[in-house]
Specification:
Chain C: Keywords: Heme, Iron, Membrane, Metal-binding, Transmembrane, Transmembrane helix. The complex is a heterotrimer of chains A (194), B (429) and C (282). With 194 residues, chain A is of the alpha+beta class. Chain A has a domain of 133 residues: 3-layer Sandwich (Rieske Iron-sulfur Protein), CATH 2.102.10.10. Chain A has 4 helices and 9 strands. In chain A, the strands form 3 sheets. Chain A has a 3-stranded antiparallel beta sheet, with no helix packed on it. In chain A, strands 2-3-4 form a 3-stranded antiparallel beta sheet, with no helix packed on it. A 3-stranded antiparallel beta sheet of chain A has the order 5-6-7, with no helix packed on it. The longest helix of chain A has 28 residues. With 429 residues, chain B is an all-alpha fold. Chain B folds into 2 domains: 215 residues, Cytochrome Bc1 Complex, Chain C, CATH 1.20.810.10; 110 residues, Helix Hairpins (Orthogonal Bundle). Chain B is 63% helix and 1% strand. Chain C has 10 helices and 4 strands, in the order H-H-H-H-E-E-H-H-H-H-E-E-H-H. The longest helix of chain C is centred in the N-terminal third of the chain and has 29 residues. The chains are: A alpha+beta (194), B mainly alpha (429), C mainly alpha (282). Chains B and C meet through helix 4, helix 5, helix 10, helix 12 and helix 15 of B and helix 1 and helix 10 of C.
Chain lengths: 194, 429, 282
């Protein structure tokens, strides 16, 4: 096959060329440098193209929610929303607290005490995300008259995960307890989540 | 396809050999823009603009796909969603400015590409199909650019949509029906915005498809060159890679440099302030102008101010579409056997006049419609049509071309001033 | 054949254009277009000389903050700023706590819904809110402003030619002035109508907005800068430059890096090109 090297166009003096090329490797360095530079540039351009899919500033700004808990009677729960996800706020009855506390930690798939999942002195306020840790469905049990499942907490109808009164996983495929987000009590009746 | 001395793809690694047997895509690339495509050795920098246009389309498609992830095609929120991109989306301002200015860069590059074709006779046999497909690409680009400009739903977007769909109402009898059908309403609104967004997303991929045909058609006769003389033998060509990939990299660098200067330092230079005002169907901006790349055609539209058999508005619309559609007939309007204007002194002169004529049309298109500018526009429009439809056909018949070089190699060597035995031998061949 | 048809088509277009030209010229001679007052009396904006102007421009944060104070105390009574959120103020140097306080104390409240009755009400602003509009809707805005709509200011400096200088000139010292006697003399029809105000920096010379800045010291700057009329106009122009283009600084910085990088690439590509072609005359 013809290559450029052995097919010099007529009129070129091969001897002259030999003289010009002292060190072919140094000459080719510039080709490699140019290609590498183009590669670095391409990577630099990819970064904003990837980063644009991250949450935008307006989404990040809405990351805290204030909830009024004054109207939740013991034994009741409300569904609110936090970062566009359902949030369960539950006012536990003393019986439910006692039931949660009597479960030995060794029986739990994701061992946590109720005290670890609530704020000191506010053990009756159980605030969790309403997102099943299996595949993200919303468990039942927060609404009036909904099925609370065999452990009296929450029950996910998608694949049958059952949570107890401390929203800990007790049965079914979910691996973890319902997630407790960061929150603080502004007063006895207002909670800021996030 | 291509020349008999073209290099053949010979994969060395087993994986590439396996791939070549099952799906010869690397071979296709090799023969299209690799070492397997022999290209005249004397191409100048004007031959960079095809590759640059391809790069510009790539930039538009990538930034466009990404912007579509954040844009909302609804008249109530479109303007706000663009501002959300500019303010809240990570690197959103960069992506949006890149897309808006990328359109200008794309059109700029394509205009130079077209001018190159006109000057060096690249539209002539045997490359008529390359030219025809190119005009199709240009038309698709104009449609895409127009619909893209509507999407931010600013004042110029809205009134641009109003005016451009208004062209169709010039058609006798069915015009108004067609306009309402295009808009899906009596004025641009949600329906129009949604369909424009849908088509604006679709057409670039159609353009990419036609570009493949454009390149395919080009590879049958091979690339033209500044002398317009056919390739006579292997000494006239070099493989595309690495010779023209290296040269295109230089062009691409300069292109990116200009693009970056525009994008980062004057992103609104080519835009219009009114498009930062949300669309208001009850108030027309004082001075409606299209984007710069449509100005010459807008000037032609505005120049037809007198009724003559047909109403002035219809003449304007016919002339504006005609000014582009006549390019389809160019290969047959020009009957000269000589391609390059370098060897056609008269044609070259008229072509240079045409260049200034189109620049003048661009100025008139953007300027205030006072009597002086209207008259300038009428003269310039007249020359535009006369050039293609009257001057070119007659000049191509009557002019005496300058003597052509015997071959590309001979022209190259003459340029370098060398007279060697090889050259004389070649000339006598 | 092609030649004959194309010549005919060409002549048709050229002929119609010649006819149009004839009528245009005739009309121009017989009924010359009347001079317009705004042609003769409109003034180009004065130069505000903001630090954000030019290719290496950056925001003077203290100035932008002063401009925000002018917006808050003067403009916000009528003009919305709907594409800007309180949280954005962090970019011009306010702390998280200051932003919360500004949002909380903002006079105009966010439209909201009473959670008990479902009735429309308002609530205090939070940092993630956009600046609330002073009017509930366009009709209310027009009704309160002599049928003129105060435009949203978020993008004002990009929505007008030479925007920052335009804003500075329009509300700066001496912009509002009595209509020149020679204007009324020359264009009797162009007398400023009742309820409008003569301002040569405004496109059609007569603006509906009453003079917003009227005297030195109208705003008392917290940073101690003397609040002269032009100083306040300049500061609010700086603030509105930021609201229209909040990413200006990152844009300039990214541009600087990109241009240097690409310039080096051009240099290397040129070298590689010379290297590849060294054996072939072209």
């Amino acid at each position: 096959m013809a290559t450029v090297e052995d097919q010099l166009p007529p009129g070129e003096d091969p001897a002259l060329l030999q003289e010009e090329v002292h060190d072919p490797r140094r000459r080719d360095f510039i080709n490699i440098a140019a290609v590498s530079f183009a590669g670095v540039g391409a990577v630099a351009i990819v970064l904003p193209l990837v980063n644009q899919m991250n949450p935008s500033a307006d989404v990040l700004a809405q990351s805290s929610t204030e909830i009024d808990i004054s109207k939740i009677a013991p034994g009741q729960a409300i569904k609110s929303s936090f970062r566009k996800q359902p949030l369960f706020v539950r006012n536990l009855t003393p019986a439910e607290i006692a039931e949660a506390n009597k479960v030995p930690l060794s029986e739990l798939r994701d061992p946590q005490t109720l005290a670890e999942r609530t704020k000191p002195g506010k053990e009756n306020w159980l605030i969790t995300l309403g997102v099943c840790t299996h595949l993200g469905c919303v468990p039942l049990g927060a609404g009036e008259g909904e099925n609370k499942g065999p452990f009296g907490g929450y029950f996910c109808p998608c694949h049958g995960s059952a949570y107890d009164t401390a929203a800990r996983i007790r049965q079914g495929p979910a691996p973890l307890n319902l997630h407790v987000p960061d929150y603080t009590f502004n007063s006895d009746t207002v909670v800021t989540v996030g | 396809m291509s020349f008999p001395w073209a290099k053949h793809y010979e994969p060395k690694q087993p994986l590439m050999r396996w791939l070549d047997e099952k799906l010869p895509v690397p071979r296709l690339v090799y023969n299209a823009v690799g070492a397997g495509y022999p290209v005249p050795r004397n191409l100048n920098y004007f031959w960079n603009f095809g590759v640059l246009a391809g790069a510009a389309l790539g930039i538009q498609i990538i930034t466009g796909i990404v912007l579509a992830m954040h844009y909302a095609a609804n008249a109530g929120v479109a303007f706000g969603s663009v501002e959300g991109i500019m303010r809240d989306v990570n690197a959103g301002w960069f992506l949006r400015y890149a897309h808006a200015n990328g359109a200008s860069m794309f059109l700029l590059v394509v205009y130079i590409h077209i001018a190159r074709g006109l000057y060096y006779g690249s539209y002539k046999a045997p490359r008529e199909m390359v030219w025809l497909l190119g005009v199709v690409i240009f038309l698709l680009m104009m449609a895409t650019a127009f619909m893209g400009y509507v999407l931010p739903w600013g004042q110029m977007s809205f009134w641009g949509a109003q005016v451009i769909t208004g062209f169709f109402s010039a058609i006798p009898l069915v015009g108004e029906t067609i306009r309402v059908w295009l808009l899906g309403g009596y004025a641009p609104d949600n329906a129009a915005l949604n369909r424009f967004f849908s088509l604006h997303y679709l057409l670039p991929f159609v353009i990419a498809g036609v570009i493949i045909l454009h390149i395919w058609a080009l590879h049958i006769p091979g690339s033209n060159n500044p002398t317009g003389v056919d390739v006579k033998g292997e000494q006239d060509t070099v493989p595309f890679h690495p010779y023209y990939t290296a040269k295109d990299a230089v062009g691409l660098g300069v292109f990116m440099l200009l693009f970056a200067l525009l994008l980062f330092f004057s992103p609104n230079l080519l835009g219009h302030p009114d498009n930062y005002i949300e669309a208001n169907p009850l108030s027309t901006p004082a001075h409606i102008v299209p984007e710069w790349y449509f100005l010459p055609f807008y000037a032609i539209l505005k120049s037809f101010t007198a009724d003559f058999i047909l109403p002035a508005k219809l003449w304007g619309v016919l002339a504006m579409f005609g000014s582009i559609l006549l390019l389809f007939f160019l290969p047959w309007l020009d009957s000269s056997p000589v391609r390059s204007a370098n060897y056609r002194p008269k044609y070259r002169g008229f072509l240079i006049v045409l260049l200034f004529d189109v620049i003048l049309l661009g100025y008139v298109g953007g300027a205030e419609a006072n009597a002086r500018n209207v008259i300038l526009g009428q003269i310039a429009s007249g020359y535009y049509f006369a050039h293609f439809l009257i001057i070119l056909p007659w000049v191509s018949r009557s002019e005496r071309p300058r003597p052509l070089p015997g071959s590309i190699t001979e022209a190259v060597l003459a340029k370098h001033g060398g007279t060697s035995p090889a050259q004389t031998a070649l000339a006598s061949n | 054949m092609v030649r004959a048809i194309s010549t005919l088509v060409g002549l048709a277009f050229v002929g119609v254009l010649a006819l149009a030209l004839f009528f245009t010229a005739k009309d121009a001679i017989q009924n010359p277009a009347p001079e317009a007052a705004e042609h003769e009396f409109h003034l180009h904006p004065r130069d505000a000389a903001l630090s954000s102007a030019g290719y290496f421009g950056t925001f003077d944060r203290r100035q932008v903050q002063r401009g925000f104070q002018v917006y808050k105390e003067v403009c916000a009574a009528c003009h919305s700023l709907k594409y800007v959120a309180f949280r954005d103020l962090k970019e011009i140097g306010y702390t998280e706590a200051e932003v919360k306080a500004i949002a909380n104390q903002w006079v105009i409240e966010q439209p909201s819904i009473n959670p008990d009755t479902g009735e429309a009400t308002t609530r205090k602003n939070v940092a993630s809110d956009h600046f609330p509009s002073p009017f509930a809707n366009e009709v209310a805005a027009r009704a309160a402003n002599n049928n003129a709509l105060p435009p949203d200011l978020s993008l004002m400096t990009k929505a007008r030619h030479d925007g920052a200088n335009y804003v500075f000139s329009l509300v700066g010292k001496g912009a509002y002035r009595p209509q020149p006697a020679e204007l009324v003399e020359k264009f009797p029809g162009a007398k400023t109508p009742e309820g409008l105000h003569y301002n040569p920096y405004f496109a059609n010379l007569n603006i509906a907005m009453p003079p917003p800045l009227t005297s030195d010291g109208q705003v008392t700057y917290t940073d101690g800068t003397a609040a002269t009329h032009d100083q306040m106009a300049k500061d609010v122009a700086a603030f509105l430059t930021w609201t229209a283009e909040p990413k200006l600084e990152s844009r300039h910085a990214a541009g600087f890096a990109s241009v240097i990088f690409i310039a080096i690439f051009c240099f290397l590509a040129w070298g590689a090109y010379q290297n590849v072609w060294r054996d072939v005359k072209h």
